[in-house]
Design goal:
This protein has about 240 residues and is α+β, with helices and mostly antiparallel strands. The protein is built from eight helices and eight strands, in the order H-H-H-H-E-E-H-E-E-H-E-E-H-E-H-E. The strands form two sheets. Strands 3-1-2-8 form a four-stranded antiparallel sheet. The protein has a four-stranded antiparallel sheet with strand order 5-6-4-7, with helices on both faces. Helix 2 (about 20-35) packs antiparallel against helix 3 (about 45-55). The longest helix has 18 residues, at about 20-35.
Amino acid sequence: MGRKWNNIKEKKASKDANTSRVYAKFGVEIYVAAKKGEPDPESNQALKFVLERAKTYNVPKAIIDRAIEKAKGNSEETYSELRYEGFGPNGSMLIVDALTNNVNRTAADVRSAFNKNGGSMGVSGSVAYMFSPTAVIAVEGKTADEVLELLMEADVDVRDIVEEEDTVVVYAEPDQFAAVQNAFKQAGVKEFSTAEISMLAQNFVTLGDEQMTQFEKLVDALEDLEDVQQVYHNVEYPEDEE
């Protein structure tokens, strides 16, 4: 499980380095979630989940409020949720999740990013079967034993609990996301290093230096696209890279 957390840290570090782009994408995601139901996180679980994840990226309140107010208004802007699957160097696999108000534009942009950076698009289902939807919640300031105890007291089942340096990472089924978070909150934990539902690879591939450079260009090109929200992959980053 350690390499899974290492990859999540790598992805988070990349996003932290591109805050304005990340904030804009969160604005769209919050708007879409708020439009799905009531623009109130207490009655809209999709919105509540997005807001919890936004907190871990320090998304400013002004951006959150603006997106929710837009959803409350008369905006007729609609977005489609899309998933693309593809391949990179040396058998690497990628899943690309997007929110778009122009499906044709997004499909062309994603295909172009793959083709120009040593990758290729796959058909639906060609990659996703090698990934598992997983709730990932990480906290600092507690030991794995303490986390296990508080989850047992709350009667919450999880897949795994891993201690990585000063962070404890909980992996659980997606439908246990809220239960795990609530158990932590009941124990006085108010801040999470990570709180998201991710697509985690079941197996990983290792790339050489040249292949890794090419792969990172591909991921950067995909993440630079305005409509792309998330990029998941099965490439193992070295433990000493962050």
